[in-house]
Write a structure and sequence with these properties.
The protein contains 14 helices and eight strands. The protein is of the alpha/beta class. Strands 3-2-1-4-7-6-8-5 form an eight-stranded mixed sheet, with helices on both faces. Strand 2, helix 3 and strand 3 form a beta-alpha-beta unit.
Length: 409
């Protein structure tokens, strides 16, 4: 029992220090820093890349928002990768003014494969672009998205994540959960790290990459979470990613639990793939570069699934100690609350704080706030399931909300 107590205390300290570090970093999002100087005053030429699989319901709204950018239209070429489409995605995209490339490969259907295929073509062509931005087909881009990404490029940033907002935050408690999660990540993860000189992460959509960055190797990702993998590979070689709060993209999120479960399961499996493939490299980079940025990247990869496993181990130890009369019933209850309150109740307070700071309307989101612990709890169940069963098959998330840029701006 003594050994169990020592192990319990050691794990408590590990978990406490980890979350204390996250809290200190998050506070740095409240500091407003002076903008970086412009190194080169230039209007760069962009590719807007849209991988799309059967997105006839939403693709036109994104193309329309990109054609209405507050930026010279001759400097933006809109490319749609119609990836294994069996509907009218390609036809609608062409009619809307995009350049459409159709791709058919039933063995490799993920966005990572589509980006690799397309960018290899553009690299071989030596296409005359300075940078590219990647969007999901269900997105709509704020009118100043390209303008603000161009500013970041002129400030010397070469990989930048934009602000990922939500088109449909009040559709259901599920879409509200996604909205709260992304709003929290935007400020307390990405902005906080950018302010500290650490590295944010690419977050799936609405990001910009300088074309020269991918020319040597192409878009070289293998996991189900190509965005996280790309980010970690940059961090391993000591390259910081940038953040642009004012480059906003609006994303449609699932409204049903089944779709959400499938999507988040795929993300969790992809994260596990990154843990398996890149933890050693991140640890080696931390040792070699000796920078907080590399250490923070290592903490990210060990901070979700492994920390979840540690918490499960702590709960199991507490139950074993209770059964062996090592702790009282009250002490068991107190220890369980110590883990459950920060996991489920604290995020509600954090969400309200985020919404106040970022001027998000709270009243329409009250159902989402109340159900947010349920949303997070279901994610814990997904993590637990994926520890034992990892489905790597790709399943399409249906996007049907006909929301235009004027509806959210």
């Amino acid at each position: 029992m003594v050994y169990l107590y020592v192990l319990q205390q050691a794990l408590v300290w590990i978990v406490t220090i980890f979350w204390l570090y996250q809290l200190i970093v998050s506070i740095c999002s409240l500091v407003k820093l002076k903008d970086k100087p412009i190194l080169e005053d230039k209007q760069n030429r962009f590719m807007a890349i849209i991988p799309a699989h059967n997105e006839e319901s939403v693709i036109e709204n994104l193309i329309d928002s990109l054609k209405k950018q507050n930026y010279p239209s001759e400097l933006i070429d809109i490319y749609v990768i119609a990836d294994n489409c069996t509907d009218k995605t390609a036809e609608i995209a062409r009619n809307a003014g995009a350049i459409v490339l159709e791709r058919f490969d039933k063995e490799n259907k993920t966005k990572g494969h589509a980006l690799k295929w397309f960018l290899n073509k553009k690299i071989e062509e030596n296409a005359p672009y300075d940078a590219f931005c990647v969007f999901d087909a269900d997105n709509i881009a704020h009118v100043d998205f390209i303008k603000n990404m161009n500013k970041k490029l002129c400030q010397g940033e070469d990989v930048v994540q934009g602000y990922r907002d939500i088109k449909n935050p009040t559709d259901s408690w599920i879409s509200a959960g996604y909205a709260i999660f992304y709003w929290t990540m935007n400020r307390f993860y990405h902005l906080a790290r950018y302010n500290l000189g650490l590295s944010p992460l690419i977050n799936g959509t609405g990001f910009m990459v300088k074309f020269d960055v991918v020319k040597p190797t192409g878009w070289d990702t293998q996991t189900l979470t190509e965005d996280i993998e790309f980010s970690l590979k940059r961090i391993i070689v000591g390259k910081k990613l940038g953040w642009a709060t004012d480059a906003i993209v609006y994303d449609e999120q699932p409204v049903g639990f089944k779709q959400s479960w499938s999507q988040r399961s795929r993300w969790t499996v992809g994260h596990m793939q990154c843990i398996q493939n890149y933890t050693k490299d991140l640890a080696t980079a931390t040792k070699e570069h000796k920078t907080l940025m590399n250490f923070d990247g290592l903490l990210y990869i060990v901070g979700s699934i492994p920390m979840f496993v540690l918490t499960l181990v702590l709960l199991a130890i507490n139950f074993i100690m209770f059964i062996g009369n090592g702790i009282t019933e009250w002490e068991l209850f107190e220890n369980i609350l110590r883990y459950l309150i920060p996991t489920f109740l604290l995020p509600i307070g954090t969400a309200i704080l985020i919404m106040v700071l970022d001027r998000k309307p709270i009243k329409p989101m009250w159902k989402g706030l109340v159900c947010y612990p349920l949303f997070l709890g279901s994610w814990l169940l997904i993590n637990f399931k994926c520890l034992f069963k990892r489905d790597t098959s790709w399943e399409k998330i249906e996007h049907v909300r006909d929301i235009k840029i004027n509806d959210v701006a």
